What does this fold into?
Amino acid sequence: MKQAIGFSNRSEPAPAPAVPVPSAAAAPVRCLAEVHFPSVDTTFPYSNDLFELKPGDAVFVSGKFAGKLGFVTSVTTRFKIDLAYYKKVVAKPEFRFSGSFNPVLSMILSPGSAALPDAATFKSWVQPPKDGDGEEINQIVVGDGFAFDLDDFEQDDEVDEAKVERALEYCREGRVRYLSLQNGVGTAFVEGSVWYEVNFRYVEGQVWDMYCDCPCPGLCKHDIAVLIVLRALLQQPELFGESDFTAVDQSFFSKIVSMNRQSVVLQ
Ligand SMILES: [Zn+2]
It folds into this structure.
């Protein structure tokens, strides 16, 4: 069954009406924002001079709660603070969805190229910019060795049974939360102890340049989990033979929508 995203067929109340996306040109307003972090049920004030903020906005901050999604509870422009004592709002992810998605396996799948969230949007939800001065620049080098047939990647020398078993466990737990393939460029986000990004290229049954940003130097369980999900999704009749698609884990998607009722924008 096709359903427009965000309009659930369950008996929950309908999501709040879409709020307009602030235009990219909206000037940031220097303010002090109270931010609540649901995962630790704590609220702290943060300084902000990068974004236009209003109550209900989802944000990421620097400091102790870096990487935890927080929600602005109040904003004031009448303040005077010593910046040395305040951490900052560092990112304001926008929760935009569009396209029609079909429930497939444990994911929702949108064929074609127009769906949101795109990989950059999804990344902004789960891998916020790191706090710091950017002094640590990772230099990643990818060898040419990773090229295989999607249909029988299990034959690759680096793929052993133990890795496949761990990857299958990841798949059963729905940890491949996001997978998109656009013009032969694949991007996936896998939730392990932290979030990992997997990039690869795929054309007509061949996968190459596969790279996961976890510390493992070779083909890792995240890579293999992505290959398993990719192979399963490409076989779905909902794709009508198209190879471009966007897929998001259904339970993760529901969580994002319910946590962000005020911020979600349906297009
Ligand atoms: Zn990995």
